[in-house]
Amino acid sequence: MGAGKTSVLAEASDILTMRHIPHAAIDLDGLGLAYLRSPSGNDGLMYRNLQSVCGNYDSAVARRLLLARAIEDRAELELCQSIVAAQNTLVCRLTASLELMEQRIRTRESGLLRQQYVTRAAKLNAILDEARLEDFTVINENRSLTDVAKEMLVKACWIRS
C-alpha cells in the first residue's frame, strides 16, 4: 500500500496509448471492492471478476495486460497467471520508503479505515520482502510518475527508452 501501483498503472497505460500499443490495464483491487460473507471472501469474487474482464479483453484481442496488485505469495501469482492465460509474466515491485508510503496513504485515505491502511503498509512490505516474487524493482520516490512508469515499461521490454 502506498507504493503507487494504481498511479503507475494509469501512467503506464497512458504511455502505451500515446505510442499506439494495444493493451489493457486493470487495478485488481477495484474488482474486489465489497464486503461479503462468503467463504471465499472478497478475493474469490475479485478473481472471478478478473476472469470475466480478461475474457472480454481477450475477445477484443488485447495481448498485453498491466495488472496492479500487491501479490503476497506464489499461489496468488500462479492463480493470476492462470486466469489471465499469460504466456509471459513479469512482476514489477514498486518501492518507496515506508515513511512516504504511509504519507501517501494518509493523504489518499480519509475514511474510517485510514489508520488500518497505514498500519498495513509496513506489514505488506514485510510480506513482499519475504515472498520475493518480483522479476525487477522500480523505485517510486523523488521522481516523476512518468519516469517511474517508463522505467517499468522499459524493464518489461514493452517499450524502448
Features:
161 residues, 10% strand, globular
What does the model show?
The protein is built from six helices and four strands; from the N terminus they run αβαβαβααβα. The protein has 161 residues and is mainly α. The model has no long low-confidence stretch (mean pLDDT 94). Helix 1 (5-18) packs across helix 6 and helix 2 runs parallel beside helix 3. The protein has a single domain, classed as Rossmann fold, CATH 3.40.50.
Helix and strand arrangement:
Elements: H1 5-18, E1 24-27, H2 41-59, E2 65-68, H3 74-84, E3 92-95, H4 98-108, H5 114-131, E4 136-139, H6 145-155
Helix pairs in contact: 1-6, 2-3, 4-5
In short:
This protein is mainly alpha-helical. The chain has 6 helices and 4 strands.
Work out the helix count.
Answer: 6
CATH homolog superfamily: P-loop containing nucleotide triphosphate hydrolases
Count of the separate structural domains: 1
The helix content, as a percent range, equals 40-55%
Largest beta-sheet characterization = 2 strands, parallel
Q: What is the H/E string?
A: HEHEHEHHEH
Low-confidence runs of at least 5 consecutive residues: none
**What is the C-alpha radius of gyration, as a whole number of Å?**
16 Å
CATH architecture identity: 3-Layer(aba) Sandwich
Strand order of the largest sheet: 1-2
Task: Give the mean pLDDT.
Answer: 94
Number of strand segments = 4
**What is the distance, rounded to the nearest whole angstrom, between the alpha carbons of the first and last residues?**
28 Å
CATH class: Alpha Beta
Structural class: mainly alpha
